[in-house]
Specification:
With 188 residues, this protein is mainly alpha-helical. It has 8 helices and no strands.
């Protein structure tokens, strides 16, 4: 039945199916990262690195912080677009995101289950925006890889460039929202 559904689906619908599966897969991989067992020492090391970055961001202007967050997230998404390599890199990055969330939750003054922390992050629009962009890049990497296997890579290139532009714009907006929320929640 699923194969029949796929065969009858339009190209646009197939892209939506692949995107949706990639979105769910990246969520599952991130959750698996939150469930990774860490020693207290490992968690402290990861938290220390994150606290340094957070401290740097809090001392920046909204524009500087936005550009730093954007640059980091856009570089990750660009690497996810790379055919064949992108999905593996995307899985690695999202898993590590979950591990960092686990480390933060273990080292907080009142520990909270890491999966709950991840769930709470989805209250913020920038989390949704970032996962959507990463899923777009991840799924487009799969389409581009398949096109290259079929020797039709040039045909997929325009779609890839349009999606890179969409990702750029969404991530810029997400970084601004994230930075404004950081400033508002920190009281600066």
């Amino acid at each position: 039945m699923a194969l029949e559904l796929w065969k009858r689906a339009s190209s646009r619908r197939k892209r939506f199916y692949v995107f949706s599966l990639c979105f769910l897969l990246l969520i599952v991989i991130t959750v698996s990262g939150t469930l990774t067992p860490l020693t207290l020492e490992e968690a402290k090391d990861l938290s220390k690195d994150l606290e340094q970055t957070q401290g740097d961001i809090m001392n920046m202007t909204v524009l500087s912080g936005t550009l730093l967050i954007f640059r980091n997230n856009f570089m990750i998404s660009l690497l996810m677009f790379i055919p064949f390599f992108g999905p593996f890199f995307g899985g690695y990055v999202t898993h590590n995101t979950g591990v960092v969330i686990a480390a933060e939750s273990l080292t907080s003054p009142s520990p909270v289950p890491p999966t709950l922390v991840l769930l709470v992050l989805f209250v913020f629009p920038f989390t949704w925006m970032e996962f959507i962009v990463y899923s777009l890049a991840f799924s487009e990497s799969l389409w581009l890889s398949w096109s290259l296997i079929k020797h039709k890579g040039r045909e997929e290139l325009l779609t890839t460039l349009i999606l890179i532009l969409v990702c750029l714009l969404v991530l810029l907006a997400a970084a601004f929202i994230e930075m404004v929320l950081i400033m508002a929640l920190s009281g600066t």
